[in-house]
Specification:
The complex is a heterodimer of chains A (about 325) and B (about 475). Chain A has about 325 residues and is mostly helical. Chain A is built from 13 helices and 2 strands. Chain A has a domain of about 150 residues: MetI-like fold. In chain A, about 70% of the residues lie in helices and about 5% in strands. In chain A, helix 5 crosses helix 7. Chain B is of the alpha/beta class and about 475 residues long. Chain B has 2 domains: about 180 residues, D-Maltodextrin-Binding Protein, domain 2 (3-Layer(aba) Sandwich); about 200 residues, 3-Layer(aba) Sandwich (D-Maltodextrin-Binding Protein, domain 2), CATH 3.40.190. Helices cover about 40% and strands about 15% of the residues of chain B. In chain B, the strands form 4 sheets. Chain B has a 7-stranded mixed β-sheet. A 3-stranded antiparallel β-sheet of chain B has the order 12-7-13. In chain B, a hairpin with a 4-residue loop joins strand 3 and strand 4. Chain B starts with a helix and ends with a strand. The interface between A and B is large, with 58 and 47 residues.
Chain lengths: ~325, ~475
């Protein structure tokens, strides 16, 4: 059929119109502040009492001061507390996802459990931290229970011990997010073609073999997605340790996360230093994202090639 | 095609996540300020708890009506007093107040701050700025303030000699001890004899040992004795761009470490629930360092078994406390009323100051009603000399008589604008040292880091040899 050029209607402009609000909001609320943040990170700019000092250009002084002031330690704290929460989270979630989706197990009340494990995520993180602060305080219910059970003779001061505090932060992150992860992984497992499980069963796979040889490889993309979102979330960890330690990152600043450190500078209106912290965080996040992007993509390509290779002979056979 | 789309999508997502993360924290200050639509004038008062609010509502003569949620008070002439209350801890109040004061000039008349309250720990920061008004300009005279304690005027006097605030209270500190525990440990609960046993730090430490032997704790936590040391320093915290830690502060560190290691305290922190519980019926703590407001306001509240019940003997340990001077004179806290520059209610502000800080009758009534110690030497002396006056909470003791003596020793010449940040910083940093999480050098380093975060202008921290 021949196309009549004059009658062609371009709908493209409507498309641009529809996506414009996002770009306008993005420009005003994210892009300009970002540029400003980077700009001010090269200035001495803060408030001393009621006087505003600066902005005076100081080059890389803020960055130098940052690395003198334990930036690495806070990054380490953040990673440690993230790992403390992430490892149990991924293990329990995998286990639950495997159980909930196993047609042979026939767990009753599946829907009920799904709701219950998701519940902690509905509570505000700060409220959750407040709750734990009260539960695990020196005279709190946890200590009195442990004492009355005879497990310990005097209260264990969770929030005065390094691993007590870090452990609680990890525990809270785990409790808040394992339900969410379980549901994501269940969706992934249910997306696997059931015939694969049937075939595995016919071939005599044990449940363990099915899990490690069929389920796990098939949900790998979702696992990586979970890892990345969790890692970004971990890098931004703030409200739970902030509330639990009253913003001090106690004891000995071992539960001070990067964002808490950023918050300290922002609170004293030190825009130069806060900007420098933000820029470094931006770079870290950018590197993480790029690494993930390339590993994911490289993986996709190689898989596609392999698949094509494998499919080729069969296709030929069919065609031939 | 599909791959291209995926690439765009993942870059967009990644970008969104990063921007979302780094662009945060613009600081959402202010808030909660509805437009003032009322007819007549609005008096905006900023403070950090309801202490002044209740004094104002109870004792200011012009009060006509208090709103049910206490957020506003209406005066007889139709003026509406709007209360803005921000908690004090972690310099939160100062932070919010600074933001509001910096916006004062551009604010609408009814939105401008008229009165704000300041605490001893940071009074100078505001007094030495253009954001406060000389009280003499407002119309207060030396005669009006003749009966006020000199130190309460000195601390709010700026470098040019202008007095920028005034207060209704003086805050000498005492040592409040449990009568029952003192009887068990020392064999007496008489304030004079207990004072003799606690007259200096060596004696105090000896009593701590005796108390520990009987299963009691001398103090509740790490910060209890802090003010007795920090008020007797030789110089202000900050000199130029350097923080100088006083030798007396290090004495507090040494004493507290010793008390902690020997089990003389309960390892609590100021204002923590455990600390409050130690002051109640279940507590086994010998005593607490408290100034005026702490005794009738905080300690009384904490001592009751039923906080909503009657304040009388039989409810918790009401009546079991008594006060003595303790090993060293000190003060703690105090609240000053400052007029904000740019206020559109100068006459009213002046009248509030006159009535609530200079009026001897009202001052005396406040003390008789609430047992708070007010800033009027004549009225206080009168109550101190009254043989019939006694506090039921303190087992009938006339604590005003002790306050009158202690108030004579108050010296605020070493107070400075950085005190809240430095006090909170050093208490926080050395908590880890007392807990055994860091050594001395670690605690010192953490203090330095905290100070430099709080006050970017500070360049060095000097420790005593």
């Amino acid at each position: 059929m021949k196309k009549i050029k004059g009658n062609e209607v371009s709908y493209a402009k409507y498309g641009y119109l529809f996506i414009a609000p996002f770009f306008i909001a993005f420009l005003i609320f994210q892009f300009i502040p970002l540029i400003q943040t980077i700009y001010y990170s090269f200035f001495e700019y803060y408030r001393s009492g009621l006087k505003i000092i600066g902005p005076n250009p100081v080059g890389f002084d803020n960055y130098a001061a940052l690395f003198e002031a334990d930036f690495g330690k806070y990054a380490g704290n953040t990673i440690i507390m993230w790992i403390l929460g992430f490892i149990p989270q991924i293990l329990i979630s995998l286990l639950l996802a495997a159980w909930f989706t196993d047609i042979r197990l026939k767990i009753k009340g599946k829907q009920f459990f799904k709701v219950v494990i998701y519940m902690p995520n509905l509570i505000m993180a700060s409220a959750f931290a407040m709750l734990f602060f009260a539960l695990f305080s020196d005279n709190g219910p946890v200590n009195s229970t442990l004492i009355s059970m005879g497990l310990i003779s005097k209260p264990f001061r969770f929030l005065s011990s390094v691993w007590g505090t870090r452990g609680l932060v990890g525990l809270m992150n785990f409790l808040m997010w394992f339900g969410n992860t379980t549901i994501l992984l269940m969706a992934a497992v249910m997306g696997i073609n059931p015939s694969l499980f049937e075939a595995a069963e016919l071939d005599g796979c044990s449940p363990r073999q099915t899990f490690f040889r069929v389920t796990l490889p098939m949900i790998r993309p979702i696992l990586i997605y979970v890892l990345i979102t969790s890692m970004i979330g971990g890098l931004q960890m703030f409200d739970v340790p902030q509330i639990l330690t009253n913003g001090k990152g106690t004891p000995d600043r071992t539960s001070m996360t990067l964002i808490m450190y950023l918050n300290n500078h922002l609170f004293s209106k030190n825009y130069g230093m806060a900007g420098a912290v933000s820029v470094i965080l931006f770079i870290i996040a950018a590197i993480l994202c790029l690494v993930v992007y390339f590993t994911l993509n490289a993986d996709d390509d190689s898989k596609r090639i392999r698949k094509r290779d494998r499919l080729k002979p069969r296709k030929e056979a069919v065609n031939g | 095609m599909k791959k291209g789309f995926k690439a765009v999508l993942s870059i967009a997502l990644a970008a969104a996540m990063m921007f979302g993360m780094t662009a945060c924290g613009g600081g959402n200050s202010g808030g909660g300020e509805e437009a003032a639509a009322e007819a007549g004038k609005v008096l905006n008062i900023w403070c950090w708890n309801d202490e002044f609010q209740s004094r104002f509502n109870d004792y200011y003569p012009g009060v006509a009506e208090v709103a049910e949620d206490k957020s506003t008070t209406t005066l007889e002439d139709g003026t509406v007093v709007k209360w803005t209350i921000n908690p004090n801890e972690g310099m939160n109040y100062q932070d919010k107040l600074d933001a509001a004061l910096l916006a004062q000039e551009s604010a609408a008349d009814d939105e401008k701050i008229d009165i704000f309250l300041v605490e001893a720990d940071y009074a100078l920061k505001y007094v030495d700025s253009d954001y406060t008004v000389d009280v003499k300009e407002l119309g207060l005279t030396d005669e009006d303030m003749a009966e006020q304690y000199q130190y309460t005027k000195d601390i709010v006097t700026d470098s040019n000699g202008a007095q920028k605030g005034t207060t209704w209270q003086a805050t000498p500190g005492l040592f409040a001890y449990r009568r029952s525990i003192a009887k068990d440990v020392l064999g007496t609960d008489d304030p004079d004899e207990v004072q003799a046993a606690l007259a200096d730090w060596d004696k105090f430490n000896a009593v701590a040992e005796q108390a520990a032997a009987k299963g009691y704790k001398m103090l509740s936590g790490y910060d209890d004795s802090y003010r007795t040391f920090s008020n007797n320093v030789s110089a202000p915290w900050v000199d130029g761009t350097a923080v100088n830690v006083d030798a007396n502060i290090m004495k507090w560190v040494d004493q507290t470490k010793e008390f902690t290691d020997k089990g003389y305290n309960n390892k609590t922190s100021l204002w923590a629930p455990e600390w409050a519980a130690d002051q109640g019926p279940e507590g086994k703590v010998f005593g607490f360092f408290y100034s005026t407001w702490g005794i009738n306001f905080t300690l009384l509240g904490n001592s009751l078994a039923d906080p909503d019940g009657a304040q009388e003997v039989g409810n918790g340990i009401f009546g079991d406390y008594a006060v003595c001077y303790g090993p060293e004179p000190y003060y703690w806290g105090g609240t000053w009323i400052c007029a904000a520059a740019g206020t559109d209610n100068t006459e009213l502000v002046a009248d509030v100051m006159k009535q609530l800080t200079c009026n001897g009758e009202i001052m005396k009534k406040i003390t008789l009603d609430t047992q708070d110690y007010t800033n009027n030497q004549a009225a206080m002396q009168e109550i101190a000399d009254d043989p019939d006056f006694g506090s039921a909470f303190l087992g009938g003791q006339n604590h005003i008589a002790l306050f009158v003596e202690a108030a004579k020793n108050i010296d605020m010449s070493n107070a400075g604008p950085y005190d809240q940040g430095c006090n909170e910083g050093i208490q926080g940093a050395f908590k880890d040292y007392f807990d055994g999480n860091v050594d001395m050098d670690g605690a010192k380093a953490n203090f330095e880091k905290t100070i430099k975060e709080k006050f970017p202008e500070i360049e060095s921290v000097n420790w005593p040899e």
